[in-house]
Design a protein that fits this description.
heterodimer; A: 121 residues; 5 helices; B: 208 residues; mainly alpha; elongated
């Protein structure tokens, strides 16, 4: 009887662990409600496996993303000058070209048809 | 009469949205202010995603160009911050899709002026797992860590960057990435599992 109960308890624990592990990422991000938070915290004080899992995902994230925390220097003033002097000018020029193309598309089409007609003749 | 009540005044919006509305009305200086305020954030997001300074600078220019060109369609429904993150995230996710190239990363780029030894990745390793210092050269380890990040699936990587470095909530990330908060939760969970597995491979099982 004890063995059956113990096995059932272990199975319940496994289910709990699966559920708890699936919520640990959100727990780290403080995106769980108070009920889930309390459930997780009471579970990891008893469950070594889940506590270790939480420590592992926390450490892994800290270590692997560490190189991303210091970015190269980006010069805002220089970038702004490039934006107005080159990027916007280029876009306006392209816009003008597209406007021109669009406006005279009919004329271009007629010229092309006439050219093809005369070539075939 | 109700229609008039529903119409918001420019003063009712947050300061960034006010700048966008001023820009929509033809004030280029307002756009410059937006550029000054958000360029670093956007460029940093692009760098963290691409791990290449030149690509990040080009991407940031293109993102601001998109905002500039689409100003006539701008509707102040969401906060400007959400708006710019959405454009930036979509743009970054499309960089890889379009170019389909392996983006290189470099540890020799100019780092922020406050850079010192404290900023090197090894110094982030918790004291209880600092043993690999003796076995692996620091640069080699840095490169392995950056490679591990670069190999994350793109959506997982973007969600992780937005959460960890831009400190967005799940709801803000979901708006930026056009997905549900449940999907964000799942992306971050999978990203963390992947990172743990990768770190085990880099440092060896013994460190976990």
């Amino acid at each position: 009887m004890y063995g059956v109960k113990n096995k059932q308890r272990q199975d319940n624990m496994k289910t709990d662990c699966k559920h708890i592990k699936s919520r640990l990422s959100a727990y780290l991000d403080k995106q769980v409600d108070d009920v889930t938070k309390n459930l997780i915290e009471s579970h990891i004080t008893e469950c070594k496996d889940c506590a270790e899992y939480l420590k592992n995902i926390t450490d892994a994230e800290i270590i692997i993303t560490a190189p991303l925390s210091k970015t190269p220097v980006f010069d805002t003033n220089s970038a702004r000058r490039i934006f107005w002097d080159k990027t916007v000018k280029k876009a306006k020029a392209e816009g003008r070209f597209l406007f021109f193309l669009h406006k005279y598309a009919g004329t271009f089409a007629i010229i092309l048809i006439l050219l093809l007609f005369f070539i075939n003749e | 009469m109700k229609i008039f009540n529903l119409k918001k005044n420019i003063q009712d919006f947050d300061s960034d949205t006010q700048l966008m509305l001023r820009f929509r009305d033809g004030d280029d200086n307002a756009f410059s202010e937006i550029f000054n305020k958000y360029y670093q954030k956007v460029a940093q997001l692009c760098w963290r995603y691409t791990l290449n300074k030149d690509t990040a600078e080009d991407a940031a220019q293109e993102i601001f160009m998109k905002i500039y060109q689409n100003i006539s369609n701008y509707k102040p429904t969401a906060s400007f911050s959400t708006y710019i993150y959405r454009i930036s995230a979509n743009h970054c996710l499309n960089i890889i899709r379009d170019q389909k190239r392996h983006l290189s990363y470099s540890l020799d780029e100019n780092w922020n002026s406050d850079d010192d030894n404290q900023n090197k990745p090894l110094n982030y390793i918790p004291s209880n797992i600092q043993n690999p210092r003796e076995n692996v050269m620091q640069k080699e380890l840095d490169e392995k860590l950056l490679k591990a990040i670069s190999e994350l699936p793109k959506k997982q990587k973007m969600a992780l960057i937005l959460k960890k470095f831009d400190n967005l909530s799940y709801e803000e990330i979901s708006k930026s990435m056009n997905c549900s908060t449940g999907a964000v939760d799942s992306l971050l969970q999978r990203a963390r599992i992947t990172l743990t597995d990768k770190l085990k491979k880099i440092l060896g099982e013994g460190f976990f």
